[in-house]
Amino acid sequence: MVKLGIIVPCYNEEEALPETVKQLESLICELTDRGKITGDSFVLYVDDGSKDGTWEVITGSNKGYKHVQGLKLAGNVGHQNALLAGLMTVKEEVDAAISIDADLQDDISVIEEMLEKYENGNDIVYGVRAERKSDTFFKRFSAQSFYKLMNMMGAKSIYNHADYRLMSQRAIKGLSQFKERNLFLRGIVPTIGYNSDCVYYARKERMAGESKYPLKKMISFALDGITSFSIKPMNFIMGAGIFMILIAIVAAIYAFHSYITGDVVRGWTTIIWSLWFIGGSIMFSLGLVGQYIGKIYIEVKERPRYIIEERLFCSDDVRDPD
């Protein structure tokens, strides 16, 4: 049987967490009773520096439920680092770990299928959304555009997959060898290279609380993903620069010819437009290059990606889930 750890990053999830704990506890008990996982399997809730009562909910659940563990980070380090903290904490303790968001919009009923695919020799099993009907048009369009852009940039990504996945112990240890601070796990994990498969599910509505990924964070996350896995934007800038130089040469030849023949059109519109266009292109290019320089700056400092403040193990004083 498989010793399973379920990793749940939490940030201000006080409202949704009680129901999440209840559902995951019931799932662990059910899978244990059916001989799918060992009795010492657990769910690790990672508190990513929440400002509400998330940690209090976790500590209370730890005392009341058999399979609940807690990990409190010293500050808010972001979803990806919190998820990594959970995985690195359990990498020596479990045979496989499943990561899932605290809102349980991802369907936990496919976890059994994930385990079956793991037992069939897959070290990584991706949870993939079968469709995006529950999303708004904008979110659906932006998500599809993001995955297509990532593929164009040469980054490995699984279409409609976020961070709902199973990883074997050796896959987690493989992940631990990636030392970058700019984490984009859904791009890193496919590069590990072990056998993988997918399970498909329909995503549900959020039970309670608000999404922790507003538009600003989604754009920042997408930019991190692109600049962390591809230098094609910089190659594009070089190509665009060469193209603009060629255009400038052609324009200079045309202007010289017009001057010689006396066919000169006086006006400032074209000049002003050119100045704005070239100036904007330079600023955009510098900003994009600055993104890479900024990431180098963050990497070379080698600051810790997270600091653990407290760890709660499974409690002996437990009750059965309702």
Description:
Residues 317-322 have low confidence and may be disordered. The protein contains 10 helices and 8 strands. It folds into 2 domains: 4-209 and 304-312, Alpha-Beta Complex (Spore Coat Polysaccharide Biosynthesis Protein SpsA, Chain A), CATH 3.90.550.10; 232-301. The chain has 322 residues and is α/β, with parallel strands linked by helices. Strands 7-5-6-4-1-2-3-8 form an 8-stranded mixed beta sheet, with helices on both faces. Helix 1 (17-33) links the parallel strand 1 and strand 2 (42-47). The chain is elongated.
Helix content: 40-55%
Under the CATH scheme, which architecture of the largest domain would be assigned?
Alpha-Beta Complex
CATH class of the largest domain: Alpha Beta
| Spatial strand order of the main sheet | 7-5-6-4-1-2-3-8
The name of the CATH topology of the largest domain is: Spore Coat Polysaccharide Biosynthesis Protein SpsA, Chain A
Number of E-state strands: 8
Shape: elongated
- How many domains make up the 3D coordinates? 2
**Rg, nearest Å:** 25 Å
Put simply, the count of helices is 10
Overall residue-averaged pLDDT value: 80
- Please report the distance between the alpha carbons of the first and last residues: 25 Å
Low-confidence stretches: 317-322
Task: Provide the descriptors you would attach to this structure in a database record.
alpha/beta; disordered C terminus; eight-stranded mixed sheet; 322 residues
